[in-house]
Specification:
Length: 104
């Protein structure tokens, strides 16, 4: 069983900074992904001729845009992973080192 004092860690300024940075970054990514997601139904509703525009063969702009949402989701996941590895993990490692083996 762990003897870690989680309340003390949660109250620590470095933990609060980590949580603030991570929350701000995640809310930004979420806003971008939600905005891009809703571009498809809004765009199809307000610009149906654009979304019907044939690009090649049976593929039209609407289908390509819908498929692009997968790429955007993967891109956002890659951006988060890269940013977390560079920034959040360093702060978390500092906290872990500071509180490693601490007892309540």
């Amino acid at each position: 069983m762990s003897n870690t004092d989680w309340a003390h860690i949660h109250a620590h300024p470095k933990f609060k900074e980590l949580h603030r940075r991570k929350s701000r970054f995640l809310w930004t990514l979420m806003a971008i992904s939600v905005a891009y997601y809703f571009l498809l139904p809004v765009g199809a509703g307000y610009f149906p001729e654009l979304f019907k525009q044939k690009l090649w063969g049976p593929m039209n702009f609407g289908l390509v845009f819908a498929f692009s949402e997968f790429l955007v989701a993967w891109g956002i996941a890659a951006i988060y992973a890269r940013h977390a590895n560079r920034n959040f993990d360093a702060l978390a490692a500092e906290l872990q080192k500071q509180f490693e083996g601490s007892t309540p």
